[in-house]
Design brief:
The protein is mainly beta. 8% of the residues lie in helices and 34% in strands. The strands form six sheets. Strands 2, 3, 6, 7, 8, 9, 10, 11, 12, 13, 14, 17 and 21 form a 13-stranded mixed sheet that branches.
Length: 465
């Protein structure tokens, strides 16, 4: 059954001119693609090894925390009610630049092999900003099987404030925002920012998220995002309701209730969290090897039964620890739309987990093709020191493969430059990803290298044969 939330979104006035299927763009130089050896590179993440011991699986167990509906309603009433995604789309105020309007540094960040069939660059106000980092992507193809949220095709991109930026005021640190992108016309995409916040327990106020959102999945009417190890409330995931977007009434640097109304650091819209999940083993520490995982990337797997949330573990690329991959089932209960499957005690158990030899994972995807017994797992790897391009590996129990775009041992660095996140739009067969960096040139001026792009999954798998 298709789910579109409690309220129907009204149809947009303009026609849906763009189809999501398209012709490949000539974006990067042609490359010779051959299957990678399974045991040549030290970067090779190796085969998947199933985690089966009950004690090891318990490391992934979550505890669910639901916000009080009465407190959420109190906050919404105080702010003048809620709006939906369609309202945000009707008031977009920034434009995605098509590939032919991107700077050379931006298109050079695209994958070398396989090449992208769609590519977009951000509004110039966001493209070169060092204060914000694009980290995650999900789409209405995740939210609903028909690929639409109401009448709209939508892409969401999660950005995290760069707290390492010097001289940044305290009020800006820990901010997280989502670009709500109108993808109805793929030749004319626009977007608007929505700030992610956490409400107080009584619904009288809200605070900034104070966490990095390296992973994000939109499923049914909920948006699940990762929380970093330093989260104030020691959570691993936060959950947002796409029907509970609320307007800010005061434009100021503050976040929360202010004199005269509500502020969202200058943004026009906020989304308050409606639930969260914490690891029952305690908060994670990426510097420790204590078994408690630090959530890195997220994605949705619609090929599993039931649909599932896929996660990867984050460690720095030069860490000694090796990352694990795992999944949770989504609930099938009609009154738990978009939430994970929890038992009577509010515990959520991983239904599958694997160990790998990988570090520096910056994107994870799982998909089982029709007729196949098991799913293939894909992980994006951080670039090595010799090349900023990363590697996209496909893993199974036999080993790992990656496309090649050259003849030497480093030729597997064919994916996007500093690419983050993977999201599969099943209806169109495309994998969406994005690159993160806005580098400084020698004069200290930011050079944009950020691009949002799509590659057909069929081309990815063909490059691995």
């Amino acid at each position: 059954m298709k789910h579109r939330g409690r309220h129907r979104r009204q149809r947009r006035g303009r026609a849906l001119r763009g189809a999501l299927a398209g012709t490949a763009l000539a974006l990067t130089a042609a490359a010779t693609i051959v299957s990678a050896s399974q045991a040549v590179s030290s970067d090779n993440p190796g085969p998947l090894k199933s985690v089966t011991a009950a004690a090891d699986l318990k490391d992934f167990q979550l505890k669910e925390h639901l916000a009080s509906k009465s407190s959420l309603d109190r906050l919404a009433t105080s702010m003048g009610g809620t709006v939906g995604v369609s309202t945000v789309l009707e008031h977009t105020n920034r434009t995605m630049r098509p590939a032919n309007e991107c700077a050379p540094t931006e298109t050079e960040a695209l994958p070398v092999a396989p090449t992208a069939t769609r590519a977009y660059c951000w509004d110039e106000a966001d493209a070169a900003s060092q204060r914000w980092l694009p980290r995650s992507v999900t789409t209405s193809g995740d939210a609903d099987e028909d690929g639409r949220w109401g009448a709209n095709r939508v892409i969401l991109s999660g950005w995290t404030h760069n707290d390492a930026e010097p001289d940044e005021p305290e009020v800006s640190r820990g901010l997280a925002r989502v670009a709500v992108i109108d993808a109805n016309d793929l030749s004319d995409m626009t977007y608007r920012w929505v700030l992610l916040v956490v409400p107080t327990a009584d619904g009288s106020d809200y605070r900034k998220l104070e966490s990095s959102i390296s992973g994000m999945v939109w499923y049914q009417d909920k948006l699940l995002v990762t929380a970093s190890a330093g989260d104030t409330d020691r959570k691993s995931l936060y959950v947002y309701d796409m029907n509970r977007i609320q307007r800010a009434s005061v434009s100021s640097p503050a976040v929360g209730r202010v004199s005269g109304g509500w502020s969202a650091h200058g943004y026009g819209y906020v989304m308050p969290a409606v639930a969260s999940y914490s690891l029952t083993g305690g908060a994670c520490d990426p510097a420790a090897d204590d078994g408690t995982p630090c959530f890195g990337s997220l994605s949705l797997d619609r090929s599993s039964t039931p649909d599932s949330l896929v996660a990867s573990e984050w460690f720095p690329a030069d860490a000694d620890q090796r990352s694990r991959l795992w999944r949770y089932s989504f609930s099938r209960a009609s009154d738990r739309s978009g939430l994970l499957a929890a038992n009577a005690f509010g515990r959520v158990n991983a239904v599958e987990a694997y160990s790998t030899k990988a570090t520096g994972i910056q994107g994870v995807l799982s998909y089982r093709s029709a007729g196949e017994e098991k799913a293939d797992w894909y992980v994006g790897r951080a670039p090595g020191t010799k090349d900023r391009h990363g590697t996209l590996w496909r893993l199974d129990s036999d080993g790992a493969k990656a496309a090649r775009c050259g003849s030497d041992d480093d030729s597997r660095r064919c994916w996007g430059e500093h690419a983050e996140s993977l999201s599969y739009w099943e209806g169109t067969g495309e994998v969406w990803s994005l690159t993160e960096r806005a580098a400084d040139n020698r004069s200290g001026i930011p050079v944009p290298e950020r691009v949002l792009y799509a590659v057909p999954l069929s081309q990815i798998t063909d490059s691995l044969r």
